[in-house]
Design brief:
Belongs to the LysR transcriptional regulatory family. There is one protein chain. The protein has one domain. The chain contains 3 helices and 2 strands. A two-stranded antiparallel ribbon has the order 1-2. The longest helix is centred in the last third of the chain and has 18 residues.
Length: about 110
């Protein structure tokens, strides 16, 4: 699910061109962790953020099916109601999140198909 609609059109790229694929299946969820657990259980192919599945791939629980293709970029944002809330603890949280995210991406391909 993407918002209130089924995400049945997956877009991938190989560095030169964009490839769109229409997919269908017997399962639909708006819960990213449920989809990850289905994939780990061998219930099908999942199109996931690398941050969601990097540990499972490294542990051998999931396999990247198309390592030469990259999935769509997905922004990750830290939202504060007002700039005044950018206190030292919030800035430290932001720096820690950036560091942890980089650990998952550096040297790895953020691939979407698993």
């Amino acid at each position: 699910m993407l918002g209130d609609r089924i995400h049945d059109r997956w877009t991938l790229e190989d560095g030169k061109r964009e490839i769109s694929v229409t997919v269908s299946g017997t399962r639909v969820s708006d819960d990213a962790d449920v989809v990850r657990r289905w994939a780990v259980a061998g219930e099908g192919v999942a199109y996931k953020s690398w941050l969601d599945v990097a540990a499972d791939v490294r542990a051998g629980h999931l396999k990247v099916l198309m390592p030469d293709l990259m999935g769509e970029r997905a922004p990750l944002n830290l939202l504060c109601a007002h700039r005044a809330q950018l206190s030292k603890p919030v800035i430290l949280l932001l720096e820690m999140l950036r560091s942890r995210c980089k650990q998952h991406v550096v040297g790895q391909s953020p691939v979407g198909l698993l």
